[in-house]
TrEMBL record:
<dbReference type="InterPro" id="IPR020849">
    <property type="entry name" value="Small_GTPase_Ras-type"/>
</dbReference>
<dbReference type="GO" id="GO:0005789">
    <property type="term" value="C:endoplasmic reticulum membrane"/>
</dbReference>
<dbReference type="InterPro" id="IPR001806">
    <property type="entry name" value="Small_GTPase"/>
</dbReference>
<keyword id="KW-0342">GTP-binding</keyword>
<dbReference type="InterPro" id="IPR027417">
    <property type="entry name" value="P-loop_NTPase"/>
</dbReference>
<dbReference type="Pfam" id="PF00071">
    <property type="entry name" value="Ras"/>
</dbReference>
<dbReference type="GO" id="GO:0046872">
    <property type="term" value="F:metal ion binding"/>
</dbReference>
<comment type="similarity">
    <text>Belongs to the small GTPase superfamily. Rheb family.</text>
</comment>
<keyword id="KW-0547">Nucleotide-binding</keyword>
<keyword id="KW-0472">Membrane</keyword>
<protein>
    <submittedName>
        <fullName>Uncharacterized protein</fullName>
    </submittedName>
</protein>
<keyword id="KW-0460">Magnesium</keyword>
<keyword id="KW-0449">Lipoprotein</keyword>
<dbReference type="GO" id="GO:0003924">
    <property type="term" value="F:GTPase activity"/>
</dbReference>
<keyword id="KW-0488">Methylation</keyword>
<dbReference type="InterPro" id="IPR005225">
    <property type="entry name" value="Small_GTP-bd"/>
</dbReference>
<keyword id="KW-0479">Metal-binding</keyword>
Length: 182
């Protein structure tokens, strides 16, 4: 079976760990220093449930409530990973605005999305509760994970899940004999 090609964008405030998550998933290591991203694409080929995938991960420049949402992020992208840091209230609050801008610009009512609260290794500095994360994820019709790009906690699960969500929304590999497994 040929590899399915999928493209996902990482969106969120500056310094929440978007690049670190992508690097941890694709290259398997953690980068301690902070180098602000302009835009970068990572590619990883992997197998999930017997299917090969070629996943392109678009690592975007950090956004804030005033940034214009780049229109090219609404095209040619199959799913979105919204990232905040559990240590930063403002990074959490910005997610809702970004999500609404994306729906507005794409003209869709729902997109395959995952909400990620990163830096969960920094528990002592927590500024956003798990409950708040879950509530926002419900609003976005998205799965919710807390991750640590540093310790690798839940990093693979996030990318595996977005691949499954993208397939689901396209009626892809999850469809068997007309029955959809959700
Ligand atoms: N403790 C901890 N630090 C993290 C984690 N993820 C990222 N960092 C650190 O947070 C800083 C910012 O990480 P980046 O991955 O560059 O963040 P970004 O969201 O890509 O930033 P922009 O390019 O500005 O959008 C770096 O110093 C990372 O080492 C994490 O899970 N835990």
């Amino acid at each position: 079976m040929p590899a399915k090609q999928r493209k996902v964008a990482l969106l969120g405030f500056r310094s929440v760990g978007k690049s670190s998550l992508a690097i941890q998933f694709v290259e398997g290591h953690f980068v301690d220093n902070y180098d602000p991203t302009i835009e970068n694409t990572f590619v990883k080929v992997f197998k999930l449930k017997g299917q090969d995938y070629e996943l392109r991960i678009v690592d975007t420049a950090g956004q804030d409530e005033f940034s214009l949402f780049p229109s090219h992020y609404t095209m040619d992208i199959h799913g979105y990973i919204f990232v905040y840091a559990i240590t930063s209230r403002s990074s959490f609050e910005i997610v809702r605005t970004l999500y609404e801008k994306l729906l507005d610009m794409s003209g869709k009512q729902q997109v395959p999305a995952i909400l990620v609260g990163n830096k969960c290794d920094l528990l002592r500095d927590r500024a956003v509760s798990i409950e708040e994360g879950k509530q926002l994820a419900d609003y976005m019709h998205a799965a919710f994970f807390e991750t640590s790009a540093r310790s690798r906690e839940n990093v693979n699960d996030v990318f595996n899940r977005i691949v499954m969500e993208m397939d689901k929304s396209e009626g892809g590999s999850q469809n068997k004999g007309g029955c959809t497994i959700s």
